[in-house]
Every structure is written in structure tokens, then in C-alpha cells.
Write a structure and sequence with these properties.
heterodimer, A: MetI-like fold, B: 306 residues, MetI-like fold, 13 helices
Chain lengths: 296, 306
């Protein structure tokens, strides 16, 4: 037992936690979709981080004499109905979009994962209660639930995040529970249990890492959905309020002047498509990379 | 089969009750005095009392919910705080408009989605496959309200081919239907492609080919038929998303459906109308999912055999 001869080098490598991350990274890079998605997202992260240096104008300074200017060397994406520089407003709005999308998913995921772990591991009544509640929340199609919640709480950035987080909880609860059911009876988990490990340790240290793949994939796709929903709510006037340069709100205020000034709605829309595309491609690519069937 | 349908119907009961409870609780989420929010800042104490009386806000919560359910059972969704009109009267005519809109969106999604999915699966890993799937992921990433605005600008404003807004004429169907259907078409195309590829690898398809059955026949008769089974589920789900997508599409194209109704009601803080619309949309979605489940069951005889 104690002899080191039996321990093959592969086995040792397998035990290292970072090797798993490394192999994921390798597979991600080999997968074109996730690579392109990651590049798009890094691009927007850099824009958000260095926004103060990238903005050519103050995003909120109005210049009525200079309204509705088309794209030019002075205003790259033109100016809006108040003469504000659209390029600078899009740059400034980047962090809002990323923030709403990631925070609402992170909060929803934390609650959803815990509930899903509990439901899947303990089963019985707890499982029934949690999953029936999830069924009810999932019975509201698309942004309807978020719309209803924001309508009551009132329009604001934080309320949009709360509403979207609640919308995300059942999605993660369901996917976590499903994965837990698949792995909870494998020998390895049974062995840990037989050794007398506490439930909390089994849940978070042993089960969670084993069900993380589908959750990671879902998180990326869910950020895409949440960004679209948040922009939709702002477009309806229920999200971030003007004059804050949030992309959905910019589309909403721009649409009244769109006939003669299409650039008011063109550029914020393209920015939205690109960010959402980044998360979708990353998620798609991760799914292929993490899917054991597609491993070569 | 009957047992399956009955069991599935019974499962609907807690979901339906839950949906009404969530919709009921919307008013409880309003920060501060709900009556004040609905009646407005300038409302007198009498008016506030009137609103509370009408909505039963003075009763304990469980009594309120009981009354809410009792009304609901008689298809009574309450009255608008603004106009005093029964919510049912506001919802019913608009419900058909939204349903019609969702139907046309589905027509676009299914026809375009199936066509592109088959096209891509036919030549796996070809340029055509790659191009179709790239288009699908872009279609999936587009906010439908923005797509609607762009379509409107190009086809209504610049080219003048189609009317900008409204509902009723057949020309007014195209732009909203494409707006609604694009994301769905993308999802269905991806689903069809992967389902087809899975089926094409199966033995019976290979046998059919080996027998010398014409390629087109193999694709449509053998492969597509079986590939369609999982696609049906996606189509059903899409219909549900169209119901909520209608909120944005109707706002873009000024269509007087449920989506416009709920957005206007939110702006006017008319919560009985918001609740009523949300309930109708959610229950329709629940019903559609039920139908899809049953349909899936009928189509997939393999499940039944097991």
C-alpha cells in the first residue's frame, strides 16, 4: 500500500485541482466558438475597465446646437437628440450592461445552486417543495416574471437586478438538481459518506465540483439572456432611467427620432448584439468542450 | 395514454395555484402604501379608502387571496383602477391579437428554422453548415425589439414596402412576425440540425441508404420524421416565449395586444390589469406546455413502449 511504485504519474496529475482547469482551458482554446466568444468579452471588459480613457466626450454633457449630427471624425457614432456623443455614451454604458448581466446571474446562481443541491441530495418533501416552486416560477414565460416584479418594485437598475436574479434562481435550481441526481449515488460520493463526512462537506466540497460543468455553461448562456431582458426592460422604460446611458434606454429614447437619424438606434443595438453574442458563443463552446461525448 | 394525460393534468393544479399566488403577491411587493401608489399622490383619504375597499386591501392577506381565487374561478379578473372597466373585457379582445401575432411568429420560426436546420445538417461541416450556424447564433443574440426597429427603418421607412405599425391588414403581419420569429428560428435551426445529425448516424438510415433509397427520400422520409420529435418540444417552448416576446414587439409596432396593455397598465400603476394580463399569459404558457408534452408523448412511441 505504502509503496510509491503503484502510484502512476497520471494519477498524481489527476489529483491536482489545477490540472482540471488547465485541461478545460486547453479544450476551450481548441474550440473556436468559445475562443471567439472569450475574445469578444475580453474586448468589452477592457472597454468597461478603461472607459474614462476611451470616452472622447462627457457622456452626459448636452450640446443642443450640435444635436442629431451623423457620424463624423468629431463624433464617431454621431450625436443624439440632446447633442450628446453616442460613442462615449456606449463606452460608458458597457459596464452597466456587463454589471446587470453578471450580477443578476451570480445572485440567481448562488440561490439556485444551493436550492438545487438541497433538493437533489435530500430528495423527498424538500425536493418536492423546491421543485414545485421552481415549476411555478418557470411557468412565467421569458421576461414576464421580471416585468411583473419590476412593475411593483418600481423602475431602477437595482430592481431590474433583483427581478432578473429571481428569474434566474429556478433555472439554476433545476439544472443543479438534475446533475446531483446523476452523481449522488456514484461510489466515490458513497465512500465519502461512509467515511462519516458531514452533509455540508459532501454537498459543497464533493458534489458541487462534480456538477459544475453544466452550471458553468448555463451561467454563460444565462448572462446573455439576462442582458437581453435587462435591455428589454429599459427599452420599455422599466429599467435604468435616462439620462443614464444604458443601451436599452438609449434605444428607447432614440426610436422617436429614428426615421431621420437611424444612428441613434443603430450603434447601441450593435453593441448589445456583440456582447450577447460573446456570452452565447462562450456558452456554446464551453458546452462542447465540457461535453464528455465530444471529447476526442 | 389516458392515465398519462390525467396524471399530467393533475400536475398542473399546483402550478396553476402557484401562478395565481405569484400574480396576487405582485401588489404586496409594492413598497409603501399600495393604494397610494395606485390612486396617485393627489388622492384624498376617501379615494384611498375606495381603492382599498375595491381591492379588498383592508382584509387579511389570506382572505384577500381567497377572494382573488373565488373571483378568478368565475373568470373575474377584477376592475381597472383607472377606468373601472372589468379587466376581463380589456384582456379578452387583446388576447386574440397577441395569440395571432405569436402564431405568425411561430410560422416564421418553424419554417425558417426547419429549412435552415435541414440545410445545415445535409452537409455537415461544410461552409453552408458553418454559415447557417453562425447566422443562427447571431439571430439568437439579437434583441428582438432592436431587430424590429431596424426592419421598420429599412422596409417601412427607406423602401416603403410595408406599413410601419398597426395590426389588422395582411401587410402589417410581416415585420412583427419576423421580429418575433427570428430568435425562435435560430433555436429551431440548431435543434433540427443536431437532431438530424444524430438520426443520420443511426442504423436504419444507413440501411435505407444501402438499399439504394434516394438521398432526398432518406432525408425527408426517414431522418426528418424522427428528428422532428425533439424539435416539437422546442417549438412548444418557443410559443411560450413569443407570448412574452409580444410585450416588446407590440411596443415597437404599436400593436394593441396584451403586451401593450400590460406596459401601459404598468405606466399607469393599474395593478389589477397587470395581474390579469400576467395570469392570462402564464396560464396560456402552462397550457401550451401541457399540449406539447402530450404531443411529444404521442409522437415518441418509443417512450410509451418502455
Amino acid at each position: 500500500m505504502g509503496s510509491t511504485v503503484n502510484q502512476s504519474p497520471e494519477r498524481e496529475e489527476f489529483a491536482k485541482p489545477e490540472s482540471r482547469f488547465k485541461s478545460l482551458l486547453k479544450r476551450m482554446i481548441r474550440n473556436k466558438s468559445s475562443l471567439i466568444g472569450a475574445c469578444i468579452l475580453i474586448f468589452f471588459l477592457l472597454i468597461a475597465a478603461f472607459a474614462p480613457f476611451l470616452m472622447t466626450h462627457d457622456p452626459n454633457s448636452t450640446d443642443v446646437l450640435n444635436d442629431f449630427q451623423g457620424p463624423s471624425s468629431e463624433n464617431w457614432f454621431g450625436t443624439d437628440h440632446n447633442g450628446r456623443d453616442i460613442f462615449s455614451r456606449i463606452i460608458y454604458g458597457t459596464h452597466l450592461t456587463l454589471y446587470v448581466g453578471t450580477v443578476s446571474v451570480a445572485v440567481g446562481a448562488v440561490f439556485g445552486i444551493v436550492l438545487g443541491l438541497l433538493a437533489g441530495y435530500y430528495g423527498r418533501i424538500l425536493d418536492s417543495i423546491i421543485m414545485r416552486v421552481a415549476d411555478v416560477l418557470l411557468a412565467f414565460p421569458g421576461i414576464l416574471l421580471a416585468l411583473a416584479i419590476v412593475s411593483a418594485l418600481g423602475p431602477s437598475l437595482n430592481n431590474v437586478i433583483i427581478a432578473l436574479a429571481i428569474y434566474n434562481i429556478p433555472v439554476f435550481a433545476r439544472i443543479t438538481r438534475g446533475s446531483v441526481l446523476e452523481v449522488k449515488d456514484v461510489e466515490y460520493i458513497q465512500a465519502v459518506r461512509a467515511l462519516g463526512a458531514k452533509d455540508a462537506k459532501i454537498l459543497f466540497q464533493h458534489l458541487l465540483p462534480n456538477v459544475s460543468s453544466p452550471i458553468i455553461v448555463q451561467a454563460s448562456l444565462q448572462v446573455a439572456t439576462s442582458i437581453l431582458s435587462a435591455a428589454g426592460l429599459s427599452f420599455l422604460g422599466l429599467g435604468v432611467q435616462p439620462p443614464t446611458p444604458e443601451w436599452g434606454a438609449m434605444l428607447n429614447s432614440g426610436r422617436s427620432y429614428m426615421w431621420d437619424n437611424p444612428h441613434l438606434t443603430l450603434f447601441p443595438g450593435i453593441a448589445l448584439v456583440l456582447v450577447v453574442l460573446g456570452f452565447n458563443m462562450l456558452g456554446d463552446g464551453l458546452r462542447d468542450a465540457l461535453d464528455p461525448r465530444s471529447k476526442k | 395514454m389516458h392515465i398519462f394525460i390525467i396524471r399530467r393534468l393533475l400536475q398542473l393544479i399546483p402550478v396553476i395555484i402557484g401562478v395565481t399566488l405569484v400574480a396576487f403577491l405582485i401588489i404586496q411587493l409594492i413598497p409603501g402604501d399600495a393604494a397610494q401608489v395606485m390612486a396617485g399622490e393627489a388622492a384624498s383619504e376617501e379615494q384611498l379608502e375606495q381603492v382599498r375597499e375595491n381591492l379588498g386591501l383592508n382584509e387579511p392577506l389570506y382572505v384577500q387571496y381567497g377572494l382573488f381565487l373565488a373571483d378568478l374561478a368565475q373568470f373575474d379578473l377584477g376592475e381597472s383602477v383607472r377606468t373601472g372597466q372589468p379587466v376581463m373585457e380589456l384582456v379578452a379582445p387583446r388576447f386574440w391579437i397577441t395569440l395571432e401575432l405569436a402564431f405568425w411568429g411561430l410560422v416564421v420560426a418553424v419554417s425558417v428554422g426547419l429549412f435552415l436546420g435541414i440545410l445545415a445538417a445535409n452537409k455537415q461541416n461544410s461552409f453552408r453548415d458553418f454559415g447557417t450556424m453562425a447566422a443562427a447564433v447571431i439571430g439568437l443574440s439579437m434583441p428582438n425589439f432592436w431587430l424590429g426597429l431596424m426592419l421598420m427603418y429599412v422596409f417601412a421607412n427607406q423602401l416603403g414596402w410595408l406599413p410601419t405599425s398597426g395590426w389588422g391588414d395582411w401587410q402589417q403581419i410581416f415585420l412583427p412576425a419576423i421580429t418575433m420569429g427570428t430568435a425562435g428560428a435560430a433555436i429551431i435551426a440548431r435543434m433540427t440540425r443536431s437532431a438530424m445529425l444524430e438520426v443520420i448516424g443511426e442504423d436504419y438510415v444507413r440501411t435505407a441508404r444501402a438499399k439504394g433509397v434516394k438521398e432526398r427520400f432518406v432525408i425527408y422520409k426517414h431522418a426528418l420524421r424522427n428528428a422532428l420529435i425533439p424539435v416539437v418540444t422546442v417549438i412548444g417552448l418557443q410559443f411560450g416565449y413569443f407570448l412574452s416576446g409580444a410585450v416588446l414587439t407590440e411596443s415597437v409596432f404599436s400593436i394593441n395586444g396584451l403586451g401593450r396593455l400590460v406596459v401601459d397598465a404598468i405606466a399607469q400603476r393599474d395593478f389589477p390589469v397587470v395581474q390579469g394580463t400576467v395570469i392570462v399569459l402564464a396560464l396560456t404558457f402552462v397550457f401550451v406546455n401541457f399540449v406539447v408534452d402530450v404531443l411529444y408523448r404521442v409522437l415518441n412511441k418509443r417512450i410509451e413502449l418502455n
